[in-house]
Description:
The protein is mostly helical. It has helices at about 5-20, 25-65, 65-100, 120-125, 130-135, 140-160, 165-185, 185-200, 205, 210-235, 240-260, 260-275, 280-295, 295-310, 320-335, 340-355, 360-365, 370-405. Helix 1 crosses helix 11 and helix 2 crosses helix 8.
Amino acid sequence: MHLSNKILIGLALGVIVGLIVGPEGLGFAKKWIAPVGTLFINMIKMIIVPLVLASLIVGACSLGDVRKLGRIGGKTISFYLITTAVAVTIGIVMALIMAPGEGLKLPANATYKGKEAPPIMDVLINMVPTNVVQAMQNADMLQIIVFALFIGIGITLVGPKAKPVEAFFDGLAEVTYKIVGIIMELAPYGVFALILPVVAANGPKVLIPLAKVIGAVYIGCILHLAITYTAALKILADMSPAKFFKGILPAQMIAFSTCSSAATLPVTMKNTQENLGVSKEVSSFVLPLGATINMDGTAIYQGASALFVAQVYGIDLSISQMLIIVLTGTLASIGAAGVPGAGLIMLTLTLQSVGLPLEGIALIAGIDRILDMARTTLNITGDAVCSVFIQHSENKREQSSSVSA
């Protein structure tokens, strides 16, 4: 049986058993089943830092020239920003159509103290690590990416003398890919153990009052998949959407159950390389960058949540305020990249940008895990679409160059 089918079965069984167990059996699930999921996540986290460091250095070296690195980097960031802007807009439209906040009232004891989003200059300064070992210890992905890019560029500029250094990181990257393959064999059990306690804790009764906001986010994510990504695959990447979604399914299942783009990164890289024909040099550059700054699912969540909070408080937002939400949500996807709890800080920033009360987040907090499943799945799917697009673009460029030569 194919691994993606095994993961799907693990996910389905986790949901079914979680509904049967319910809140009454939550204690048992947390004590005996959840630790298996935690062990699976820990194994993935164990390999993330060496994987990102080695693969990104090799990817930068493989590009062979700094101008090519700049060209691919520019296309990647442009793709991420454009799709994020579309995603925020879809979130707003879904909230306008479904009106999830109408008729709901904030509980009297609901309070939320907003976290301040860091100033943009602080984000830029914090991108460059003062201590690389500490950055790796803290798994600060943005700092690791910057360091890896500098090493890759340095190796490229030095030339033949740096070949042993490149060979070391190339070997390390291959070792990490092999370890990822071993860990993935345990994925069905990890997914089952991760999803079961979540379903047991958030049974159908808990979700009914906020079903509309859950529906708005999930339908928004499905529309973004079906419209934006399908169009990008057909027009920009010349790939069948059916082939793409079949190839990326295992990574989507891991993202749905772990709610972590970083934890899913090794699987996303494996799927894009083995199933979608993306080269190691492209996937090693595009995917770690996307896992850090590309947040289409979070953008839909922001747009829908901002309108939801406005509706709960009976505040009518003008067109200009909605445009501010789109702009803020798009820029915040990079602005909060290196900060833990980026999704929450991004939502706080978005609400502040149009003067909406932060207490509204208290309503969403209870269902945040349910929403996080959809938005993380969409986030990593967007990363994979971008990698396929960049690969196709570079292939066309190489073909044009060989023809003209």
